[in-house]
Structure formats: structure tokens, C-alpha cells
């Protein structure tokens, strides 16, 4: 893979801005483009906050000057061509609409170097679809982060039908060298991996509340005082390994029967406007009980603490 | 509710021992019974380790004498009757078999005070079934913890058909005053709440690996570097609230469509011996890569750190 000095951020909403902060912090020059109104100003403000998170994660207290130096390496461009024309790596964060992606990728691939990897942050679309009308589609990959990307290490990578293996491996190595935790997905499935896992939990969380089993608050209490605490430490496989002193297989022999019974009791669940309204009212009640509380700020503070703890204990 | 001074622990395996440590630490006298061989010795050893966790959670460094004093209040009884006859609260952790539970509850309820609450740690059985042949079944509730109970705050409470509301409320207040995070479940569903949520995630985690989408290691990386980090902070409802700057309803309008597509793509999945074998081999590969590592010790260390962080940030 060629040496990356300049990263282009295409689409500078919440996800794009978070990626921009991450790449700046890792020492890259960043060129950015977004056609939205006030995009430049919003980007600068967001990146400034996200950079602070990153300094705090590394326990650097006196970061004012360093932050200003990094912000000097952020260039907002007047148009897409200027942003991508000499970029060594492109992180794309456009809207989740295939028609928009198709024209965006066409314009990007006609104007950036032929061997520049383009990684899409798309959470829903398939690379095989996105790359259809691109020049040199072999270097287009999924580079799907988890929100907020400047803090959460996960990046999901997969190629489309026209992507070649070397670019997938290059993208994997690139993210890993920057300290991310990339995984390579081997089959294109809807929602990739983490969103499928997450939405499986959401479905049952919605079903239980919708059917009066418990409140939205109860669901959140159950997760954050039960299994959620363990999922920040180990994933489903290592947790199953620990569910029995003899390890995974014995745990599965004990738990498999009951689990299949629970699965059999999980009824199909569909969202519609009425359902969303009902769940929103449940959430509103919970929020009212919480009262004044900076949910997002505290979340990011907590994320930084958990990430530091994971590093300290060298968790796998 | 009557004042609780003495708690009986019936069944002193891993869960029972963890409960015993918790109640001792909270100042109760604990009488315990289990018919298994070496039960008394195993209990003492486990309680001793778990007490250390609790002292560490409260950042008490010099705890040797205090621990010995607490251990003096643990009484292993020769038979069930002695353990429960003057107990003010009973935490039952017997095997998950209805026939065994029925005779156990019959003997307990014939020999303990009539208004002593009996809380079952059962993860699979319904209270309505357990309480069938009990004397004064109105005081029998579910008090389902999450492993390890001495550290994880969640307790799921529900009554059976014959349980009266006052005992459910008393159990809730009792656990809450001890610093637990109890929730009251309003309908008896298989697996209660947290196990259903957890098993929904496990199902998709098994499905994806079984179908070659990614490895067991990838699943665990995805969770512990993505959504799992957030679930230790907020549950599914508050995370959805933060998924859009305008809050829950707008987030659902954006994510609802894609989520329903992912749900539609989640195929029924069944476990059998072949599947368990396949998943076990996947897990074994992951474990081999991790190498020498005290999984359980590190998990509990990490749990203590996350719980302290949650307290410090006063997370809801």
C-alpha cells in the first residue's frame, strides 16, 4: 500500500467530523468536503471537541497548542474534486441513498488517484452496489465505524464483487496500524455484523416493552447492570466460555436447551408509526425521570474511561 | 416487611456462594445449606474470594480482619430445616429442575416462618410453577441475579399467580436498599428480561459464525470495540435516544427501515450437537490465540472498574 499522508473526508456530518478528528490526531493532513450549508463551520466546531476527547483518552492535559496545530491541517474544500484529487485514502460518509452514492463514487473515482483506497462508512448499503459505476472499483471497500468513530475502535471491512483482496488487506492493515480494531467480513449480509447484533437486541427490547412485560427504563437498567457490563469486557463467545467452569461446550449443553425455548418464544416484531409512538412515550417517561443530565457528554466520558481500562488490563 | 437479620442461602454453588458473600458483606448473618459433597469447604473458599472483590469495589485495602469477622457470620447447616427455620429472607439457588424445586419449596415452606420471603435465583422456571405445592405461596418471588451476583447489580423480580403484590414490593425494596438495581417484571415470560435480551444477541452471534460471515473472534471484537462499550453505559433505549441529535423518535424514523430489513434477514437458527461442536471449535481457535490469560479474574477486575466508573459519573 502506498504511504498515506493525506486523507479526504467526503461528507462531514457527525460521522465524517468524528473521522476527521481521528485522522488529524493520527498525524494526517485532512481535506474535507460537504455541500451542506454551514458545513465548514460545523466541521471545525465538532472536530475541535472530538480532538479534546482524543487528548483526554491519552491523558494529555495541556493540549491547546497541539490542538490548534492539528486544526491547521484540516482543509475544507470548495468542491469534491479539490478534496479527493491528491488524497491517499478517502473515507466517505455521504447520505445512505444508493442513487446519491452512485454519482458520488463516479465523481470521486474519476478525480482521485487510481490506487487510492475509498472506504465507505455506509451502515446499510452493499459495496457491490455502491461500486457499480466507479472507475477502478477494485479499491472500493467498506470501512464501517461505530459511532462515535473517533473513540470506538471497531471498523468493519468488506469488499464488493469487484474489490480485489489486496485492497481489503491494505485497508485492514491501515486501520490496525492506526490503533483501530478492524474485522474482515467474509460474506455481504445486510447490516454487516455489529449492526445485526445490535438490532437483534433492539428487537427484543422493543418487543418486551411493547407487550407490557417491563418499561423502557427497566430494559436499560437490566442491560447496564447485567449483561451490558460484561459486553464491554468480553463478547458473546468469551462470555459463554465463562458461563461454565468447564468452558464453552459444557456451557452450551447447559444453556442451549433453555435458550432455544426463549428463542422459540421471541415473536416476530414489526415497527410502524404506532409502535414508534408507543416506544417514544416510554422513552420520554424514562428521560423525564433522569432529568437534567448531559447524556452524550457523559457517554463519551464513560467511553474514554472504559477504553483506558481495557488497555490497562490488556483485554483481548 | 419485617426486619431482616438472618438470610438463608439454599444451594451454595457458584451463584449461591456469590449471594452469600453479598449478604455477609451487607451485614447479615447467613445460614447456608447444600447437600453436595465438600459443599461447606467450597462455599467458604468462594465466599472468601468474593468478599475480597467487594472490599476492592469499595476501595478498602486493609480488609483481612474485616473479612474474617464476616466469615464468622457464615453458618453452614447440616440440613435444610436448620438453615431456614429462623431465616428472615431466603435466597434459593437450587438446580433448575421443576421436580426438585417443588419438593425443595415444600420442605422450605413447611419449616421457615410464614412471612419469610423466599426469592428464587431461577433463570428458567416460572414462579407460578415453583410455588405450586408450597405453604403460604404468597411470599414466593423471583429474585434472579446476574452472574456474578455479588458484583452485578441487576435483580429481576416477579411473582407467580399465587404471589401477593406486597411481597413483590417488599422484595424490591429489600434489594434496592442493599444497593442492588432490581426491576419488577409485569408478565411471566420465558427467560425473564435480561436472559431474553442476552440470548437474542447470542442467537445472531451463533448464526453469523455458523454461516461463515465472520469468526467467533470477530464477533467478540465487534461487540467489545463497538456496541458493547455503549451497553455498559446506557441501555438500548438511551442509546437510541443518542443515535440522532433530535432524539429517539427521529432516530427510529431513520433506523427503523434498515432495522426491519436486517430483522427480515435474520433466519431461524437452531442448536444441535453439530452446531455446538462447530461453534466450540471456533471458540477454541480464539482461545488459542489469546493464550495464557486469566479470563475470569480479569473479567471481575474489569467489572469492578466499570461499576466504580458508573458510580462516579452517576450514570442513570
Which properties best describe this structure?
homodimer, 316 residues, alpha/beta, Rossmann fold, N-(1-d-carboxylethyl)-l-norvaline Dehydrogenase, domain 2, 2 domains, eight-stranded mixed beta sheet, 14 helices, 53% helix, globular, NAD(P)-bd_dom_sf (chains A, B), membrane (chains A, B)
Write up what this structure looks like.
The first copy, chain A, is α/β, with parallel strands linked by helices and 316 residues long. In chain A, strand 7, helix 7 and strand 8 form a beta-alpha-beta unit. Chain A has two domains: 179 residues, 3-Layer(aba) Sandwich (Rossmann fold), CATH 3.40.50.720; 83 residues, N-(1-d-carboxylethyl)-l-norvaline Dehydrogenase, domain 2. The first copy, chain A, is built from 14 helices and eight strands. The mean pLDDT of chain A is 96. Chain A starts with 5 loop residues before the first strand and ends with a helix. The longest helix of chain A is centred in the N-terminal third of the chain and has 19 residues. In chain A, 53% of the residues lie in helices and 12% in strands. The first copy, chain A, is globular. The first copy, chain A, has an eight-stranded mixed β-sheet with strand order 3-2-1-4-5-6-7-8. In chain A, helix 1 packs across helix 2, helix 2 packs parallel to helix 14 and helix 11 crosses helix 12. Chains A, B: Keywords: Membrane, Oxidoreductase, Transmembrane, Transmembrane helix. Chains A, B: One of its GO terms (biological process) is fatty acid metabolic process. Chains A, B: It comes from Acinetobacter gerneri DSM 14967 = CIP 107464 = MTCC 9824.
Amino acid at each position: 500500500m502506498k504511504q498515506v499522508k493525506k486523507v479526504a473526508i467526503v461528507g462531514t456530518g457527525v460521522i465524517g467530523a468524528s473521522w476527521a478528528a481521528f485522522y488529524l490526531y493520527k498525524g494526517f493532513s485532512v481535506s474535507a468536503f460537504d455541500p451542506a450549508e454551514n458545513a465548514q463551520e460545523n466541521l471545525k466546531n465538532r472536530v475541535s471537541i472530538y480532538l479534546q476527547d482524543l487528548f483526554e483518552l491519552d491523558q494529555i492535559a495541556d493540549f491547546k497548542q497541539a490542538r490548534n496545530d492539528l486544526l491547521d491541517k484540516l482543509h475544507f474544500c470548495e468542491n469534491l474534486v479539490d478534496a479527493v484529487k491528491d488524497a491517499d485514502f478517502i473515507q466517505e460518509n455521504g447520505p445512505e441513498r444508493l442513487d446519491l452514492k452512485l454519482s458520488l463514487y463516479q465523481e470521486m473515482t474519476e478525480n482521485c488517484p487510481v490506487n487510492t483506497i475509498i472506504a465507505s462508512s455506509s451502515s446499510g448499503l452493499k459495496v457491490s452496489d455502491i461500486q457499480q459505476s466507479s472507475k477502478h472499483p477494485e479499491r472500493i471497500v467498506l470501512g464501517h465505524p461505530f459511532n462515535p468513530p473517533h473513540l470506538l475502535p471497531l471498523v468493519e471491512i468488506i469488499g464488493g464483487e469487484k474489490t480485489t483482496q489486496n485492497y481489503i488487506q491494505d485497508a485492514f492493515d491501515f486501520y490496525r496500524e492506526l490503533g483501530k480494531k478492524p474485522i474482515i467480513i467474509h460474506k455481504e449480509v445486510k447490516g454487516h455484523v455489529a449492526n445485526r447484533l445490535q438490532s437483534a437486541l433492539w428487537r427484543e427490547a422493543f418487543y418486551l416493552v411493547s407487550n407490557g412485560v417491563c418499561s423502557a427504563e427497566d430494559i436499560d437498567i437490566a442491560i447496564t447492570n447485567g449483561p451490558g457490563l460484561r459486553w464491554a469486557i468480553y463478547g458473546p463467545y468469551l462470555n459463554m466460555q465463562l458461563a461454565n467452569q468447564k468452558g464453552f461446550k459444557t456451557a452450551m449443553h447447559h444453556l442451549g436447551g433453555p435458550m432455544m425455548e426463549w428463542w422459540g418464544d421471541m415473536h416476530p416484531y414489526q415497527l410502524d408509526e404506532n409502535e414508534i409512538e408507543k416506544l417514544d412515550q416510554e422513552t420520554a417517561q424514562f428521560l423525564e425521570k433522569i432529568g437534567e443530565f448531559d447524556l452524550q457528554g457523559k457517554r463519551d466520558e464513560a467511553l474514554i474511561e472504559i477504553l483506558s481500562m481495557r488497555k490497562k488490563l490488556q483485554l483481548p
